[in-house]
UniProtKB/TrEMBL annotation:
Gene Ontology annotations of biological process type: proteolysis
Alphabetized UniProt keyword annotations: Aminopeptidase, Hydrolase, Protease
Signal sequence, renumbered to the chain: none
GO cellular component labels: cytoplasm
Protein name: Cytosol aminopeptidase domain-containing protein
GO molecular function ontology, one term from the record: manganese ion binding
Family in the record: Belongs to the peptidase M17 family.
SUPFAM superfamilies: Zn-dependent exopeptidases
PANTHER family listed in its UniProt record: CYTOSOL AMINOPEPTIDASE, LEUCINE AMINOPEPTIDASE-RELATED
Length: 133
């Protein structure tokens, strides 16, 4: 109702940034990007069937106006890939209720096309006790 869970991913990123800064691990360069936006209703708000252009030039048709986080996240990922020149990108978000229905509230879903990165996330999950699937 008050959209408090919508900031979960950004809050987790800021928490990770604080922890890594405190630990100062040698040889680690980390960039933290939070795709924050305001979700206000006004005459300029987009509506279903609007077509928006992302920062990489791809177009996105709006099917659900409650998906604003996905749009800002897409641009943040493009920025991380292009401008920040990141070797690995970890994305944290609370975008889909279906993940919570499938895995529950105590397990995070992990998706990647990179088997090496998937293994690293799995190992970190086991080391920290943070459950992932």
């Amino acid at each position: 109702e008050l959209m408090k869970f919508d900031c979960g991913g950004g809050a987790a990123v800021l928490g990770a940034a604080k922890a890594i800064a405190a630990l100062e691990p040698p040889g680690v360069e980390a960039h933290f990007i939070v795709a924050a936006c305001s979700n206000m209703i006004n005459a300029k708000a987009y509506v279903p069937s609007d077509v928006l252009t992302a920062s990489n030039g791809k177009t996105i048709e709006v099917m659900n106006t409650d998906a604003e986080g996905r749009l800002t996240l897409a641009d943040a990922l493009v920025y991380a890939d292009r401008a920040a020149g990141c070797e690995k990108i970890m994305e944290l978000s609370t975008l889909t209720g279906s993940c919570m229905v499938s895995l529950g509230k105590q397990i995070c879903g992990v998706w990647t096309g990179n088997d090496v990165l998937a293994k690293e996330v799995e190992q970190a999950s086991l080391m920290t006790g943070e459950k992932s699937w």
